[in-house]
Amino acid sequence: MFIDGRQVPEGTIIETDIAIIGAGAAGITIAREMAGRKVNVTLIESGGLDFDPEVQALYEGESVGVPYTLDTSRLRYFGGSTNHWGGWCRPMQPIDFEKREWVPHSGWPITRDDLDPYYERANQIAQIGPVRYNDADWWSDGGKNTPLPLPGGEVMTRWFEYSPPTRFGQFYRKAVSEAPNIKTYLHSNVLEIVPDEAARHVQHLRIGTLSGGRFEIRPRLVVLATGGIENARMLLLSNSVAKTGLGNQHDVVGRYFMEHPHVEKPVEILITRPEMVAPYYKTYTKLNGAQIRGVFMFTDEYLRAKRRLGTVMTFYESQDILDSDTYDEKALAQGRNLEPDVLRLLRSTTASAASDTMIGKRYGSGCATEQAPNPDSRIMLSEEKDPLGMNRTKIDWRLSWEDRANLRLNMEALARAFGQWGNGAVKILFKDKDSWDEAEGWGNHHMGTTRMSDDPRKGVVDANCKVHGIDNLYVAGSSVFTTSATVNPTLTLLALAMRLADHIDQTFVQGA
After folding, report:
1. pLDDT recorded at residue 511
2. Cα(361)–Cα(272) distance, integer angstroms
3. Are strands 267-271 and 285-287 parallel, antiparallel or unpaired?
4. Beta-carbon neighbour count of residue 498 at 10 Å?
5. Which of 107, 148, 450, 501 could form a disulfide with 460 if both were Cys (CB 3.0 to 4.6 A apart)?
6. How confident is the model at residue 347 (pLDDT cuts 50, 70, 90)?
7. pLDDT above 90 covers what percent of the chain?
8. Strands of 378-385's sheet, edge to edge?
């Protein structure tokens, strides 16, 4: 059932078993997992069923670090950011969960093994193909497609799979609305999560609407699932009892904000045997019931030996076909008719002469890279208030010199691999400089602000996503990520949401 919060009488008190704050990918997934069980579920959404500029403007805030746009980074209506999600899916690697001594503040309290069964289920929820993300044989199309044989053991091909993309607010709307034990309150904003006097148990949620209405929800258990930025903001705003915010007794809430810096065309690639480039490298390719894309990633052995963070590289075919009929030897020697950068690539390649007139093809590139967790990269509260009277977000996103240097070194490893292969060359375009005070782009991947740790001094939630020190408050979403890895967070977010739903079912529903 959907209920318009603007129509709820002033001062109404609503009793429920489970309150889920936020109807995005995580919130809808947990609600669906609870459908039909012997608990009443209240799903609370700030927006309606469609985009509303007035509601969207609640995301506006202040950026004081690396420039970052807040109001368009997420969508604030039923389905959340799946309403503009690109659909890129891939699980994290086992190394991403490990304590890496060269990565400060790394190490999850769970392992990849703990999430493996949930990744299987996440694939189904996101409507994607089989869990074959590292299986070259599976994507070979009967031997027609072969990964580029880059030697050296540093670079390898892995695959992303693509959701259609699934718009959770549309695809799962009927299941949520028809579940007899789920009520969804739209146009309803949580103003504060209010605990008891000891700040150890949530008692009620204060709800407000943009039309001025106020009412209260009294849950037995709360799941906060409003996104990687808003989760931290909500905890910080919940400060009527705990003056620094809920779960923030060690000043960790909002810290360790991470993104995936994106760089357009960090390298240019020349391949003298373009017939070896499988279609899945160049564009989205449908194979074996899935839409896929082949990418370059860096092996665990390389990351450990060289003490690096991860990077994902994509490349695409440009319109340039370098042909000796078009570019005669004299022209090549003088650099005429050919861009100087391409000429340098040709001269630097170790490839043997082609058997026909084609010299090769030029490929553009893109990348997303991991940043190390940084406690000074954080979400805070601005002095400015929104129309609900709540402090807006202040974001201080920080990228370090080490983050930038790491990406540059990974580009050099890619160039080494192509050079050793002998059928291509890489020109690095990513500038080597001492600071990274701006980003060419980012993935709108908000992570780390309520990070997971067994130690309350180092994290906000425990291995089960329960807020340290509060017995009935949980957090869902990518804000609980301890490290960001280098892949899109949605599939891991879904896996964690289902794992949390199972935990709630076992300890709260069945254990009641």
Report:
1. 67
2. 6
3. unpaired
4. 23
5. 450
6. very low
7. 84
8. 61-63, 391-396, 378-385
